[in-house]
Structures are given as structure tokens and as C-alpha cells.
UniProtKB/TrEMBL annotation:
PANTHER family the record matches: PHOSPHOGLYCOLATE PHOSPHATASE (PTHR43434)
GO biological process, one term: DNA repair
Full protein name: HAD family hydrolase
Organism: Planktothrix serta PCC 8927
InterPro entries referenced in this protein's UniProt entry, alphabetically: HAD-like_hydrolase_sf, HAD-like_sf, HAD-SF_TIGR01548, HAD_sf
Taxonomic lineage: Bacteria, Bacillati, Cyanobacteriota, Cyanophyceae, Oscillatoriophycideae
Record keyword Hydrolase present: yes
Amino acid sequence: MAEAQRSKGDSMMKTAIVVFDIDGVIRDVGGSYRRAIADTVEHFTGGASRPTLTDIDYLKSEGIWNNDWEASQELVYRYFEAQGQARTGISLNYQHLIDFFQSRYRGPDPEQWTGYIGSEPLLCTPNYFKNLTENQMLWGFFSGAMRDEALYVLQGKLNLGIPVLRAMEDVPGKPDPTGLFEVIAELETEENQQTPVLYVGDTVADLYTVTKAKQQQPERFWIGVGVLPPHIQQADLERRQTYQQNLEKAGATIVLNQLEELTPAKIKDLIS
């Protein structure tokens, strides 16, 4: 489908380019990535600390912990620092931490993905992207997930063909906007240069990415779209409001409850 959207529209002016984060936007990772973070922190603190979803949200609200391996490591360090230990004296093998995290997220056998990844609910349907294409909108993905884990949902569950994607292995992590720029460059044609761009994400790092993109390419029209992840939608009003305010402070023009509220009509309103 991604190849089709490019070949069909190469000589036709598009109304917008929409780039999506994946985790918390396309799929619900509250019971997978975030559960794996909690398991990892618990394991490497000897069972002394298991962060809640609120704890993880608080860390990610700092805007620099988009990588979940690094977030897990940071939470381990902060636990031991709170016990009076200096960070430099904490023995923590980062590769061992990654291996443990992956054994929970993918499963103990890297060839048989039996871990938490298999139970991630989808937050949109293939028709959502078909509708964007039919309304002369280009789309792609910029995610902090590993490429094969991103394709697991984009190809394996949503059947999106060969989507335009930048993942963990491809570019620096968010909030560095390099991946966003590369997705746009791959989608863009001569007729569609300077087309308005929307970046859709659920974390502060995602919205900081848009802010940095605006700073580096001020000649383009940028819109940051925040989406409340499922575990926040289920939280109390005060927590939902705080989460939304954090996204807005980071650069969100609008914050939605779910991705499919970002209809072609809504996109046209935002760029008009």
C-alpha cells in the first residue's frame, strides 16, 4: 500500500504528509513494552522496585527517555541512588539488561515471538490509512521501536505492505528529528515540496521532535498532534489533564483521545 500511495500520487499535489509514531498510537503497549520495563527494573533491583505506569509516564515526561532499554536502565539507577549509592558504583551490564527486556517483550526464544508483543491491541484499522490515501494525503512512520518489531504490527497485523518507516536502527532517537525528515524526504516529490506535515505521537519526546523540526526547517508548516495512550484514557481526570498539558507544553497543537479522531476532515481543518 505504501508503494501504491507513492506511485499513484507522484504527479499530484497532496494536501498533507502525516507521520505517525507507533507505540501508544498504532498499538497499545501498556501491557507489553511498559510491562517489560517494569519486569526489567524489578529484576535488576532484586525485586525491590517495580515501577507503575505512572512512574514510567513521569520518567518519559522528561522528554529524553524514548528508548525503553535506556528508560529501564535509568529507573534502575534512580532506585539505587535513592538508597544512597553513587551511580558510578552501581554494577549494571547494559547488554544483559537489553537481553532480559527482550526476553520479556519478544519471548525467551528470539525465533518464536511468544512474549508480550503478541498481545498488543491495535488502535486503528487498515481502512484508516486507505482513507488518508483516498483524500490525497501521504503517510509514513517514525518510531523508536526496532524495525522488525515495528513491521510486526504494520505488515503483520495491519497489512500495510512496505510502509515508509524509520525505526531505532535507522536514525538517532527522538527528540532528534532526523528520522522525521527522512520519512518526509522519502514520501515527498517535487510537486509536494513544503506540503504541511503532521507528526502524531503520545509522548513528550514525540512532540519535542516536532518542536525541533520547526526550529530546523521553519519554512515548512508543522503540526504536532498528541494522542492519549490507552492507559491514560483509563486514568482519573487529574492524571489525564496533566498528561495532556505535558503534551501541549512540548508542542502539541491538538491532543486527541485516539488516532482515528484524526480524520481527513480534521487534518484539513488543522492545516487551513
